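Hi team,

As requested, here is the filled-out complex form for the iron/sulfur cluster run. I kept the field names the same as last time so the parser does not choke. Let me know if anything looks off before we queue the next batch.

— J.
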Amino acid sequence: MKHQLDWSSYETAGQGDAYAGIPATGGDFAKAVAVCISDRLCQRKPKGVMCPSYRATDEALQSPGGRVLALKAALNGEYGPAPFADPRLAEAMDLCVGCKGCKRECANQVDMAAIKIEWQAQRNAISGVSMRDRLFGGLPRWLGYSRLLRGLVRLRNRVPLLARLLERTLGISASRTLPEPVRRPYAAPASDGDAAVDTARRVHLFVDTFARHFEPDIADAAHAVLRAAGYQVSVLGPAADDPEPDRALCCGRTWLSLGQVEAARREARRMQAALRPALADGVPVIGLEPSCILSLRDDHLKLGLGPEAEALAKQVYLFEEFIAREHDRKRLQLDLKPLGTAKMLVHGHCHQKAVGAMKSLRKVLRLIPQLDFEFVESSCCGMAGSFGLDAEHAQISMKMAELDLLPALRAAPDAPLLANGFSCRHQIIEGVARRPAHVAQLMRDALA
Ligand code: SF4
Ligand code: SF4
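And here is what came back:
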């Protein structure tokens, strides 16, 4: 089996009892699967928050452990010579939303989100990439024609007949609205001045595809807060020798999550080249979208990009992580005022939880005087990138949201909402018709 991702970190991990069940084929990928010891703790009742697809379906096959059994059967030859195209494996993998709940909560840290990418990439290699996955995966590239795309999306959202036609032809759910790109994408402000400023007060801001084209106010807010805190902010742009110097940087997440590994690797290489000077200078790189930062810290390590990717992973922070870190080091100079709002409900993005950023978020929210807030106890919101927009997934996606998140939000109709993930915000808007803020916007509003 030719791996699409780099599984070499599992090469020496396969020692001991836990590996008694390593499948016959699949090499290091099989070892990553065999990390699961089939103790079925992910199927226990009452159900924890680990696996949203298991919680929403109540079927063992839709739990991390159930998926592992199907993968082991496939890699042991039980599904014939082309197991990655087998519908039995597809049935087990299809509803995994890649939330990393299992990697975080299973005692053996089964990384089903990464395993799903390999499965999907293998399946793509056999069956080809669907038109829908090309559209969703290639979003950062299509947004290069943002005016045209904005016009098409707005038309589709307003003409039900067109939405139904696109459901029939492309499989994009007519019951969902699509996020609309803004008229004017994010434009970096002029340079912050003296490039010779102390390295400790310099930061790079990575404005991801979603902030750039859909919610540029978040990037503006982050910029304003960092400036107010005394940092010289430069917005990360393509490297001088980038093959597409006019196209904004992207972590490659949209491609990777749909198993389009080569395209994701190309984007990751662009990022790597752009980040090289920051690595040399030790200047922190700050991101806003949890899944993009998870890509840089975790997924990129499976793309075979060499040791530099590991070094870069250590220098990349979510906005809230950076603010919390600077506060801990007593370097944060921020004067914040009370917001005077009702108790705020906070929904953590799965990947914020996966990178351990919820503690930082709590710390940062405590910096705002008198802010009363509560974290909603929930698993994935169910949107999971483009998953919830797929015709065959729209219903189960809402069911995942209805497990905990949406009922908690409805129970507090006047509560302001906070959600740092782009797709979480979209799911919440669809589910309860209220717009959550990003923590950078909240902090900007609290600047004295
Ligand atoms: S995925 Fe984790 S919790 Fe579930 S059966 Fe395997 S080892 Fe147990
Ligand atoms: S990544 Fe999330 S949805 Fe997929 S198996 Fe793990 S917990 Fe379940």
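Two things worth flagging: The mean pLDDT is 93. Residues 50-53, 64, 67, 96-102, 112-113 surround iron/sulfur cluster (ligand 2) (CB under 6 Å).

Thanks,
J.
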